[in-house]
Amino acid sequence: MSNVPVSVRIQAEPFDTAAEVARLAEGRTDVGAVVTFTGLCRAEGGRLAALELEHYPGMAEEEIGRVAQEAAARWPLQGVVAIHRHGRVAPGEPIVLVVTASAHRAAAFEAAEFLMDYLKTRAPFWKKEHHVDGTAGDWVEAKDADDKAMERWGR
Amino acid sequence: MSNVPVSVRIQAEPFDTAAEVARLAEGRTDVGAVVTFTGLCRAEGGRLAALELEHYPGMAEEEIGRVAQEAAARWPLQGVVAIHRHGRVAPGEPIVLVVTASAHRAAAFEAAEFLMDYLKTRAPFWKKEHHVDGTAGDWVEAKDADDKAMERWGR
Amino acid sequence: MKVVYFAWVRERIGKPEEEVSPPESVRTVADLAGWLAQQGEEYAYAFENPAVVRAAINRKHVKPDTPIAGAAEIAFFPPMTGG
Amino acid sequence: MKVVYFAWVRERIGKPEEEVSPPESVRTVADLAGWLAQQGEEYAYAFENPAVVRAAINRKHVKPDTPIAGAAEIAFFPPMTGG
């Protein structure tokens, strides 16, 4: 385990990106780079009323925590935040947030991409579509492109 | 010129990252990914009282505008913000902000990295160190690593 | 042994979790999936393409050839689509 | 022809900008830097390592062999360190 502050949360509520960035960088003078990634629910051309995010309670926190620690071991990070929502999320609303802080930009960028590639393929979440006509749609299918993105990290 | 909203600003004042993200994503339901990069002034182990950022007025806006348009032509972006401060910046304060929005995360990440690599090596800004003992320090030297990072984009 | 299901695996089987007592010949995750597939139409439907269904033991991802001996909780679910 | 200087090029020369009238033999950015280097100690100091000094014509980056004919504003500065 590294000494890097790592905060992982699984929650139904929206999150406050600015507050999460402040949590990592405020009051410090050694942070040179902060990268945030926010993933949002798309309407898919107006077809979608909402996404319903099912998750595996317990495993979701543990698994994201494991990979956040791995990122902290792999890059010289000063802090990591990973927040993933569950439940019903409307188009335009945020689903996932990753924040990385480092002295240098390459580490912050790479760690954020690594965490997102991980979250897409290994974190136990499943998205179900709900259509604007009130019908339940299909479960979103996993993408080969996401598996390929994950493979570049050699895991 | 693309139709992507591109906002480039050179200013002495700090910026509000949350407001800039909202500018790109709020009220839209087609944005799937927002990446922000914030570059901050480091104290360099307590040695530094401030960085003084000199710039070439006019050219700074034009040059960053050109590369933001190039990013918008190269990746399927939905919006770009690039803000660079000039003048005196204290440790812990932000210097530069890049925000990219796209339907998909790879484009948002790559465009943000491209813009930052560009800003480091081609935007007409120069940093001078001011020491805590009141003396003016040296001009920060350009890094080979930054030139190498830029070269990967084939420019 | 507690088994939990998620997403369309859960929907097809019609319940989120259950206690199961497979015979001793069921040693691996793949064995368990194969045995479950024989427990009724809804199970056969859930495991109709066993290569697609992923598994976790005690909240950690595992491969089909992982032994299930000593597992407190085994989960079956589709490929993940979070993020 | 207006010439502007930034960062330590500006500090060494001791002024941020000036009007200059080089002879006709000065055709390129490199020619201009070489001619400026002969205009006094402070200029010689600023251009002591001409390979390090970058240039822009009318606010666009240019290479040393770029012709200066018709330039409204030529800038000389060290490698950039923004971001």
UniProtKB/TrEMBL annotation, chains A, B:
Keywords: Molybdenum cofactor biosynthesis. One of its GO terms (biological process) is Mo-molybdopterin cofactor biosynthetic process. It comes from Alsobacter soli. It catalyses: 2 [molybdopterin-synthase sulfur-carrier protein]-C-terminal-Gly-aminoethanethioate + cyclic pyranopterin phosphate + H2O = molybdopterin + 2 [molybdopterin-synthase sulfur-carrier protein]-C-terminal Gly-Gly + 2 H(+). It is an enzyme of class 2 (transferase). The keyword Lipoprotein does not apply. One of its GO terms (molecular function) is molybdopterin synthase activity. This is Molybdopterin synthase catalytic subunit. Pathway: Cofactor biosynthesis; molybdopterin biosynthesis. Belongs to the MoaE family. InterPro entries: MoaE_sf, Mopterin_biosynth_MoaE. Signal peptide: none annotated. Its EC number is 2.8.1.12. Pfam families: MoaE. Converts molybdopterin precursor Z into molybdopterin. This requires the incorporation of two sulfur atoms into precursor Z to generate a dithiolene group. The sulfur is provided by MoaD. Heterotetramer of 2 MoaD subunits and 2 MoaE subunits. Also stable as homodimer. The enzyme changes between these two forms during catalysis.
From TrEMBL, chains C, D:
Pfam families: ThiS. CDD domains: Ubl_MoaD. InterPro entries: Beta-grasp_dom_sf, Mopterin_synth/thiamin_S_b, ThiS/MoaD-like. This is Molybdopterin converting factor subunit 1. It comes from Alsobacter soli.
